[in-house]
Amino acid sequence: MKVTDLDVVVVGAGIGGMSTALLLARAGASVTLLEQAVAPTAAGAGILLQPNGLAVLSGLGLIDPLEEAGHRVRASVVHGADGSPVATLAVPDFGAGLDHLLAVGRPLLYEVLSTAVSKTPAIDCRFGATAKSARPDGSVDLEWLGRRSTIEADLVVGADGIGSTVREGGEFGVRSRPVGTYLRALVPRRGADIVDLEGEYWTSLGLFGGAPVDAATCYFYCSLTAPPVAAAMAAEDLAALRAAWADVLPLAGELFGRVGSFSDLLVNRADRIDCRSWHDGNLVLLGDAAHAMAPTLGQGANSALVDAAVLTASLAASDAVPAALERYTQRRRRPVVRVQDRSERLARLSRTNNRALTAVRDAGFRALERLPGSASRLVRGAQQEDPAELVDFVAKLASG
Q1: Is this prediction's pTM over 0.90?
Q2: What Cα–Cα distance (Å) separates residue 384 from each residue in 52, 55, 376?
Q3: Are 105 and 13 in contact, with CB atoms under 8 Å apart?
Q4: CA–CA separation, 108 vs 153, rounded Å?
Q5: Among 4, 58, 245, 372, which residue is least crowded by beta carbons within 10 Å?
Q6: Sheet containing 85-90: which strands, arranged edge to edge?
Q7: Are 328 and 42 in contact (CB under 8 A)?
Q8: pLDDT tens-digit map of 263-321
């Protein structure tokens, strides 16, 4: 069955789900997009788009408003507890203008994607529709507008996150475990010409990092596992949280001082999800439903964007859905697992607070940075696909 003959249900209208719906619709499929929120809004505060994610958005023709508003980052810098740089990972020039990272507010990214979805006639959006169950034969039970019904589809895409309903409906060999808890927030900048924060600090309380996301707003995030921070969070005590971070990193305390109230903080538990297979019958997974990971490499949403592109390309290149899904899984699973492993190792390293171990860790990173090409290889490996090639084949898919 050619992609132009497919009826597809995409469950979940997050970044991965909307991108998948757009790509499949532009490739010729008929798409029904299910989202349980009646008036969905972006979850999260900010996002650092990597070259691979930027490539997919560029191929879709959606990059201009993001580049106009966002903040370009030319290198990822990790600072030690004393504030001195431990590692500087410059972004290689992948071609096609992909020589930087882009920090943007998630609300803007969501708006750009949702506007494109709403303007695509081949996508039937059903907001307030809750998928109750999905089966490998391609049927989905849902509740929408107070009514229960069943949709029959040639393909059901589970882009519905860590607690995926689609994943529960098939045999995917899933394993899940927590890998940390993190806080995110958006605060006012001191001025458009002042970069308050860009990069990451590994402190005795764990990591703290962020970047500006537009001329008026700075995004920051931090880990919440250290006892003083965890206690402040449990008490919902913003002043104590600010004081704990100010003791180890004055910049963090200053940024926490710009938070209006405790309710402005977003807290997320990060889980690692591993699946033995990403497809079962006519069910297929992408994004966090297939491979949730620690956020330390910033590849969660970016990997979901790559999933959307590779899944669509696999379907477009095959007349048989099972063969296309197997090709998608084989192409994506191994590089994603490598990124999951590296993200988890970095998360553990960022939590090290023993002075001797910290000194060894920092010396190791500085030595690695001095090896010719090592920093570039780390950044390139995290992309999973060549970003310039991604731009080309996404643009071809998107143009039909």
Answers
A1: yes
A2: 8, 12, 13
A3: no
A4: 31
A5: 372
A6: 85-90, 75-79, 199-203, 206-212, 217-223, 174-188, 266-275
A7: no
A8: 999 999 999 999 999 999 999 999 999 999 999 999 999 999 999 999 999 999 998 99
3-state secondary structure 84-98: CEEEEEECCCCCCCC
For residue 240, the tally of other CB atoms under 10 A from its CB is: 15
Find the angle CA(161)-CA(162)-CA(167) to the nearest 5 degrees.
Answer: 80
Dist. CA 290–CA 161, nearest whole Å = 8
| CB neighbourhood size of 121 (10 A) | 7
Structure tokens at 303: 């990997």
Q: How far is CA 7 from CA 138, 142, 382, in A?
A: 10, 16, 33
> Helices 51-59 & 387-398, crossing angle to 10 degrees?
20
Give residues with Cβ within 8 angstroms of 298, minimum separation 6.
Answer: 47, 48, 50, 101
Tokens (6 digits) for 376: 């570039």
30 phi, psi to nearest 5 deg: -95, 125
**Total residue length of the chain:** 400
* Per-position b or e across 297-328, b if 16+ CB within 10 A of its CB: bbbbbbbbbbbbbbbbbbbbebeebeebbbbb
Mean per-residue pLDDT over the chain, rounded: 93
Structural domain boundaries of the chain? 3-74+104-176+272-350
74 Cβ contact list (under 8 Å, min separation 6):
90, 91, 99, 100, 101
Contacts of residue 94, Cβ cutoff 8 Å, sequence gap at least 6: 51, 55, 383, 386, 387, 388
Which homologous superfamily is 3-74+104-176+272-350 in? FAD/NAD(P)-binding domain (3.50.50.60)
